[in-house]
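// run 5 | inverse folding | seed 20
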């Protein structure tokens, strides 16, 4: 059986590092892992999605509509944007941070305020966390990704040690301790 986690956000938020950490954990568990990234205008704050698929044998790195077991969203609107990929009974771990997309910045559209309520109104299990505040408490706003991985790990029943090992083997040495602290804050919030 193959599990699919989609990591979605806005360019520059660290979705690729998060996918590498999660992929590392799954490989250490002896699973076949495929990772694929797709970006929009990521350098201009555009949408970015990374698929992490793992299981006994994974044939494709890309997920189809309605097949993702979990969406980890680094920004509220991105959770709504990628919702069609979530399978029935899937979960969303969502950062409450709001980053205005270009249509909102230019005044063409308004940012929807009721995203979390709409998702829950559809019967979706949503865990919303102010990951930006937790990352800042850990020492850097750039650690939103490891905060959200901590929430995901707790909800999925993974030990902290599995992720510590992954952080130690994927993050630059000078950022390891800050990322572990951010992970712990997310794990405790999960």
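// decoded
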């Amino acid at each position: 059986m193959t599990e699919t986690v989609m990591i979605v956000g806005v360019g520059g938020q660290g979705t690729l590092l998060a996918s590498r950490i999660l992929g590392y954990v799954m490989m250490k568990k002896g699973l076949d892992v495929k990772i694929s990234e797709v970006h929009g205008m990521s350098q201009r704050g555009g949408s970015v999605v990374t698929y992490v698929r793992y299981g006994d044998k994974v044939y494709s790195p890309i997920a189809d509509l309605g097949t993702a077991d979990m969406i980890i969203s680094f920004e509220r609107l991105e959770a709504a944007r990628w919702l069609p990929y979530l399978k029935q009974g899937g979960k969303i771990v969502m950062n409450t941070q709001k980053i205005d997309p270009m249509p909102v910045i230019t005044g063409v559209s308004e940012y929807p305020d009721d995203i979390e309520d709409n998702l829950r109104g559809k019967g979706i299990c949503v865990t919303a966390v102010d990951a930006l505040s937790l990352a800042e408490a850990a020492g850097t706003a750039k650690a939103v990704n490891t905060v959200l991985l901590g929430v995901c790990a707790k909800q999925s029943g993974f030990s902290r040690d599995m992720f510590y090992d992954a952080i130690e083997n994927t993050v630059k040495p000078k950022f390891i301790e800050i990322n572990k602290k951010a992970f712990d804050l997310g794990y405790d919030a999960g």
